[in-house]
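re: that complex we talked abt at group meeting.

here r the seqs, copy pasted straight from the sheet so there may be weird spacing, ignore it
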Amino acid sequence: MPWYLYLALKQLFPTGRKFPFFTLISVLGVTLGVWLLVVVTSVMGGFGYEIRRMIVETEGEIQIKARGLIADSRETLTKIDAVPGVAGSTPYVGGVLMVQYQNKPAFPAMRGVDLATVEKVTRLDRFVRVGSLDALDDDSVILSAGLATTLGAYVGDTVEVYTPLMLERIKNNEVILPRGLRVVGLLEIGHQQLDSSTLYCTVRTAQDLYGLGEGVHGIDVRVKPGSNEDEIAARLNAVLPRDVRAYSWMDSFSDFLWVLALEKSMITIMLLVIVVVAAFSVMSSLLISVVRKTREIGLIGALGGQPRHVAACFCAQGLFIGVLGTILGLIAGFLTLAVRNDIVRGVARITQREEVLQRFYQFSQLPAHTAPGDIALIVSLTVAISLLAGLLPAWRAARLKPVEALRSE
Amino acid sequence: MSDATASAPAVLTARGLAKTFPSGDRRIDVLRGVDLDVHAGESVSIRGESGSGKSTLLHLLAGLDTPDRGTLAWAGSPDTGASRRAAFLGIVFQSFYLIPELDGRENVLMARRMLGAVGAAEKARAQELLARVGLADRMTHLPSQLSGGERQRVAVARALMNAPQLLLADEPTGNLDERTGDAVIDLLLGLCAETRTALVLVTHNAAHAAKTQRALVLHDGLMR
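got the structure back, here u go
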């Protein structure tokens, strides 16, 4: 090991001493910054990742929507499935219903799915907690867990469903009767909004309730693994009629994703300030060290040390502090992420706000997704800032002439 | 000077070294043309009053400062740069200048680290040198755990670590009591004679100067 790196290590970790206070404080400052950066970027990334997962697993990577109805859904599905990169497609009918069970009303979102094709696109079966997707037929429904709780309905019960179409019949003074549908399953996706009030039925039931005939509101598309959603959406738009358009999930939720990305960027920048403050602390300590060790710097020159090596010695100290602080910060960050839900549950339990937390943040678990790119950015920026913190002291040290340094008091 | 040392090649050759320092509006001629030849294995002392320029001369001879006039050569070569200094000469200072974070052995090895990697042979030599200066059982002590005399002995071992051709000592007993100072001077002279290392000793002490082969006096910026 070159002498300047050896001396830099020895000045940070002197022989016979456990952990010098200066080194401890400097490393802790960097550790704190990296720790917070890892936790916050991962949690912010987790929100985006969970939203993507939720969209893709319930609606596919591409959503096809018409200005009105897609009347000839079979012909459109044939065109879609023929496009290279498309793994599958499934039509859906969406809307709002009124559901009543034992005089308890609710107004859930309805999703009519095509049982023959839905498994090619979505993973609804994975979210069914009670009952089964296979049990769903034209006379039954699957309720989201929150909706079932609101209504007090369970698997085997029959709920009464009212549709907006019935309003027209009321205007004509017709007697309306609700449609009775049996509950065959309870579903929990993990997103508070979807889990609180959604009803799944077959596409035929939904068409019947809304009086759509053979028409559907849209088509969800799954792409083959490794395919680019935007490219395939462009290919689909080339073969679809002008009033039927394909949107990738990122296009469909672009505003929301942009807000998430902006929030993440702003928080990352603000937290980087902690690392910069820590770097100023390191710089200040190293500058004091240069003044305190003036005679030693003179001695190094007298022993044959080159000014550039003296500079490297102080630069290396900034680098070592940065690297050690980054490693400890990464460890602390990943440990915190591993127990994040325990921490959140603990805080919520102490403050007795568990339900509020779930309602406000949409997710039943605090999501976290650590992108390798984020970690690479945090590590490179922190190490670079720490290295820069050592530059000014290094420059000061290198400028000292040995003979003047030896004469200094 | 004995005939043997006089016929030995010159390790140090200084010709007309001059150095001036500013002092307010004036300039003080500290050195006004110093000539000096030191041969291999020779010990030379330089005495002088405080402020006579002894330390300035030593810094010039060590290549730590540049003269305003005159020339300097180490073993006939004018290269007196930092990269050559580590191998060519050793320096002992009045204030020891040990690195406080390193123990005695690591301080001695620091001189070798300047030249490159340190292996088992170098570690053994550092231990041997520390044993020679009487610190066999103190080599893992930090400077703060050593007495003044012990610190200076570590500094002597460090100066000799790279087997230099020339050893410069700048009032090495200045911070030591008389008895310890005598012991350090005897050690320096003994080791230099043993290894045929040329020694230039700057000192106030006439008794110490008398122990060297050649005693010079710096007065009014000139060597006598």
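couple things i noticed - Chain A has a mean pLDDT of 86. The first helix of chain A runs from residue 3 to 12.
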